[in-house]
Amino acid sequence: MRPMSLPAESSATPKAMPIAMSVRDLRASYGAASVLKDVNLEVRERTVTAIIGPSGCGKSTLIRCLNRMHEAIPGATCDGDILLGDRNALALDPVLLRREVGMVFQRPNPFPTMTIAQNVAAGLVLNGVCDHAVLAETVEKSLRRAALWDEVKDKLDAPGVGLSGGQQQRLCIARALAVEPRVLLLDEPCSALDPIATGRIEELLLQIKDQLTVVIVTHNMQQAARVSEYTVFMLMGEMVEYGLTRQMFTKPTDKRTEDYITGRFG
Amino acid sequence: MKRHFDADLDDLRGSLLRMGGLCEEMVQSAVKVVIERDESRLAAVQEWERQVNALHIEIDDVCLRLIALHQPAAGDLRLIAAAIKINSDLERVGDQAVNIAETGVYLCKEPKIKLGDIPRMVQVAVGMLKDSLDAFARGNVDLAREVIKRDDEEDRLKSQTFNELVYLMQSDASAIQRGMGIILIARNLERIADHATNIAEDVIFMVLGKDIRHSADPHPASGMEGADAKLKEG
Q1: Which one of A262, A265, A266 has the shortest CB-CB distance to B73?
Q2: Fewest CB atoms within 10 Å of the CB: B49, B109, B194, B209?
Q3: Which residues of chain B form beta strands (DSSP E)?
Q4: Are A100 and A84 spatial neighbours (Cβ–Cβ below 8 Å)?
């Protein structure tokens, strides 16, 4: 299958940004089960790209391949090209790659034994930063970027797990942002959150996209429509359609996309 | 997979077509006031207008509810967006029909006057309205395009009628009020054709997702401008 071309440029489309990450002929499997079939995708810098599709279509596997978490699963394999800018991501040290390509998961997972500040600083500490001033500055900056600072600035030494679900998820985003990634992957980050917490995360994504590239997997199509410029629709391991979100949700080109986003699927 | 939402959308289509049917009847009856000098039809036109106005509000309400509860996308969204606009166009068609009937009642009380191309304008406008609603019901893009093409003929007929009536009024001052009545009716019919054109454009958007409005200039200089120029010359 040839690469899924990027949405055509026109005066009606947002200004095209350079390519942040690209995937070529990507195949992934769990043992004998093939999960991704020759996926080709180019993710633009400083945009939000949403990946939608029914359960089991391979969307989480796709983003897990982007920061090489997929291959950490026993029996999981991945084949094809993944480029971060013009560098071969598969040839990079996975730990270094994950500094540049951070990830936030479905369920908030602050480190249970750490305070709020320690959670945010964990990545830096792991990378050998021990200057307290630098750490304190990074904690504040990251919490501000994650729109959590005002709510926690007076209790930075409290346990991270003591926060509400929505605050914990923003704490995890702050933790991911602390190491200044170029790309942030989010795997259904709002599925366990109430609408208010979801709204805060969405606002946050719209704010941080000016500084980094965001790829979000979501089951909530309205969320995809609200926060992303580009949308990818996946089905049974294949990328069916990739286009401008506003076009995808008003005039999809593939009938399978139309059936999925209008709830006729099945 | 058939969704409950599909039944709601079918009801929406049905309500719009019912409203469209009422509007067609209103226009047909209103022009009979003029052509057959039958002022008794005004009451029916006014009663239908009340029904059309009630549907106007009801359909808008249904559309807002469907958007709020279902967050429609793609073809569903385009259908509802088109329905909101078609609803508005039909309500205006109803208003134009009432205007024709009311002007017609005035004319019934006066001596007969030349109708110019009014009968042909009625045929074209009513045909366009009917076909635009058929195109909506069937999602027929070819028919919708056909309707749009016919708008030029209506514009031409209106200009012709204006010119004839202006000439008549210049030569017979006693015919000015009645002549203005016919000009207003020609204008009402031309507006009905414009609303039918809008509906046809909405059908194309609904089916293809393609917005063809303002893609070319389908309305050359209006007859009113021509008439104004003639009056100034006169």
Answers
A1: A262
A2: B109
A3: none
A4: yes
Residue B87 neighbours by CB under 8 Å, 6+ apart: B16, B19, B55, B56, B59, B60, B63
Q: Output the pLDDT for position A264.
A: 84
- What average pLDDT score do residues A224-241 get? 95
Q: How far is B11 from chain A (nearest CA, A)?
A: 18
Size of interface A-B (CB pairs under 8 A): 32
pLDDT at B228: 39
Q: How many C-alpha atoms does B226 have within 13 Å on its Cβ side?
A: 18
Continuous segment of H or E residues that includes residue A246:
helix A245-248
CATH of domain A19-261: 3.40.50.300
Closest CA to B93 of B176, B28, B169: B28
Helix (H, G, I), strand (E, B) or coil at B24: helix
* Model pTM above 0.90: no
**Is residue A257 within a helix (H) or strand (E), and if so which, with residue range?**
helix A255-261
- CA separation (Å) from A95 to A68, A82, A90, A98, A182? 9, 16, 12, 5, 14
Task: Please report, for the domain that includes residue B143, its CATH number.
Answer: 1.20.58.220
Q: What is the pLDDT of residues B161-206, one digit of tens each?
A: 999 999 999 999 999 999 999 999 999 999 999 999 999 999 999 9
Give the range of the structural domain holding residue B155, as residue numbers without chain letter.
4-233
